[in-house]
Structures are given as structure tokens and as C-alpha cells.
Amino acid sequence: MKYDLNLLPVFVALMEERNVTRAAEQLGMTQPAVSNALNRLRETLRDPLFIRERYGMKPTEMAEALAPLVRGALASLDDVILGQQAFDPARATRQFTIAPNSYVEFVLMPVIVARLRECAPGIRLRLTPFGNDLAETGAMSGATEMVLGRIVEPPDNMVVQHLMDDGLACVVRRDHPEIAESISEEQYQRMRHVNVLPPGRMRVGLFQMLQQAGLRRDVSVSVTHFLAVPEMVAVTDYCATLPRLICHRLARDPRLKVLPAPVDLGSFPVELAWHVRYRNDPAHRWLRSLISEVAKEVSDAAVAEAMSGN
């Protein structure tokens, strides 16, 4: 029997998205093309593969059984083909789809982009939302090449690399009427707060840290991105509890001042994850190395500046 290998990525995308329209968007295909590919798969395998339901498509038993085999076969093909390709960053032309959480997008991505501009000008990045889990990013199928942030409970087909750790500090306006050079626990709990609710697991970690430290917050406003915080804090008497590296950036704003948290709130990891199909991809390996170097440099520079008192 002859098989059309072009149909296999369509099958994987449908398994992940459970929706023809979203699978088409992930693959860069039209919806009719994906529907046609699904019909050909059904004819070849003599199984409906996906049953339409009210909120999407449910895989059949055959589809569930085939999924790990197809993913493994695609990963093996990628290993063989991509592993034979030479990679010259100065001459390479390629687009990478990366899903950074809002922390990484703020702290690391500008430095990564600047570094690529210097040594690999033909490399383009397409940033996609981190989402609430890896399935939403497209990383589990390999459609998204890398995920950057806090990776919780990764599946077996994802590789996770630790990049660095960060802690938490507080930001208030420089002329705050009650806060001088430190914040006491009593002041922290009496103040009103700006809370950041980015997608993903970092917000859970902050809530857990505060709970473990026995601190309460009176949250007056919740925002969806760190970029909204400076303007909120600069015109109010509110406080924001943010990662130290973000505070390090905000400290350059003359309207704001950064202070230690009233108690040690611990640290959180920043991680890089990718599908196993990319483990031997030379370009992917090179970009992973560059990201790892940038993360170390940014973290080390912030520590050195803090120790110098600047």
C-alpha cells in the first residue's frame, strides 16, 4: 500500500487542535486543503479518525492508537534529514516560531533579537502566545519550535532545559508618601496592589509564594502584561510585586523605585522547552545555545549591578 507522507503532519495537527480551522492555521494551509487531506486519510485507513462533536472533533480509537506512532515517525525523519544539514548562522534564512511567556518577552526577547541581528540576520522570529499549557502553544506537535517560560508537567515528547532563576521585588512610585527605603510586612498588607495576570503558571507561583510567606494582598487592579504596571504605579500609591529582572528594568524609570519584598518570596525557574523532533536540528541547536547564553548574561549582569549598588 502507498502512503502519502504529506498527510501525516495534518493528522498530528488535527490530533492536537481537534478543529479543522485551527489545524489549518497551525499548518499554514487553507481549511478546504486540511478537510481534503482528512478525507484522504479516512479513505486510506478506512476509519473516520475524528468524529464531530458540539465543541470540536473527538479522535476514534484508531486515531488515538496511531498518534504516538505517527509523531515518533515524523521525529525520526526529522532527525535523519535535519541532522545531515550544515548550518551557517551568518548565511542562514529561516523562521522560528517561539512561544515566550510575557516575562521572557519583556526580559530576554529584546536581547535575543539584537543578538540575532548581529550574527544571524537571516533568522526571523514569529512570537506566538504562551497560553495556559503546552498544547495551546503548538509545541506538542512541533509546530511551535520553542517554548520559553515556566514549564510544568511537560509530556514525554518535550525536552526541557533550565535557563536561570529569578526572584521577586516590589515597585512603588518614587515619591510615595508612606514608603521610604523599605516595606514592612504590615505596610505591604495595608497597601493596595497592582497584580499581573499573564497566561501560564507564573501567576500560580506568585500566589503560592505569598501564601507560604503568610502575606495578604489587597489587589485593586489586575493587568495582563508587565508593561502596564509602570503607568499604574507611577500615578497611584499602589505597589506591584514583580520578578527582580523586570524590576531591574523598571528601576531606570525616574518615577519609580524598587525595594526588596518584606519577606523572602523565594525564586522561580525560567526554562526552555522543545519537541524531541528538533533535538538534532543544527539550526535549532544553535538557537538554543544562543538563548541559553543570553539568559546567563542577562541574569549575571543584573546580579553584578545589584551588588555594585547601581
TrEMBL record:
Q: What does the UniProt keyword field contain?
A: Activator, DNA-binding, Nodulation, Transcription, Transcription regulation
GO MF term set:
DNA binding; DNA-binding transcription factor activity
**Residue ranges of the HTH lysR-type domain?**
1-60
- In Swiss-Prot or TrEMBL terms, this protein is called DNA-binding transcriptional LysR family regulator
UniProt family annotation? Belongs to the LysR transcriptional regulatory family.
Which Pfam families is this protein grouped with? HTH_1 (PF00126), LysR_substrate (PF03466)
Q: Which domain of life is it from?
A: Bacteria
Organism ancestry:
Bacteria, Pseudomonadati, Pseudomonadota, Alphaproteobacteria, Hyphomicrobiales
The source organism is Rhizobium esperanzae
